[in-house]
Amino acid sequence: MKINLNKVAKYLIYSDLVFYTGWGLISPIFAIFILKNIAGGTAFVVGLSSAINLIIRSIVRIPFGIASDKDKTQKTAFWFMFLGLLVAAIIPLFYIIAKSPMHIYILQAILGTSLAMSTAGWACIFTKHMDKGKESTEWGIDAVAVGVGPGIAGAVGGFLVTYFSFSLVFIAVSIMGILGTLLLLAVRKNILESKKQDGKIFSNIEVRRLKKRIAH
To answer: Is 22 helix (H, G, I), strand (E, B) or coil?
Structure first.
């Protein structure tokens, strides 16, 4: 079964696949890292660090979403998405030098904020550029991308930590995160130069072509 996606939706899904597959390398083993490598690392530190990430991500997600919706040019949404992912991609490198629970808490707070920013921008753009009549399908494809990729990566991450080191995994997560972020540049012009017409997104080039057809 062949499913044709427009360029923007396709690259946003590619970005999600690469970025979150990278994070899948460490998500299942992050608790072990805290317990083994952080001075004073306990189950409580693991739980609190997770809570800080999720609570902050949830609280600031709405303000970022409101700001994204207000800017009809999608510039705000794009830069929220791009910069949020970029900051999140760099965070794993700081885990390598983290020594105390406070370091982890601060990094988790920054991670939660950056992911809220990126998610707000991503959702705004993806929703506006979805192909009419394929909304559920395209959301489903993205769900597969952020589910299967990280799922496989979890096993790979466990292997790498067992036979190599946490540092190697953190570096791999950061590299994949940066690559996933850079993929968004492939559709930057398509997003920033797009216009909405009759429920569909058109680039400026497509708008000019439509006008020529109408004129003839």
So the answer is: helix
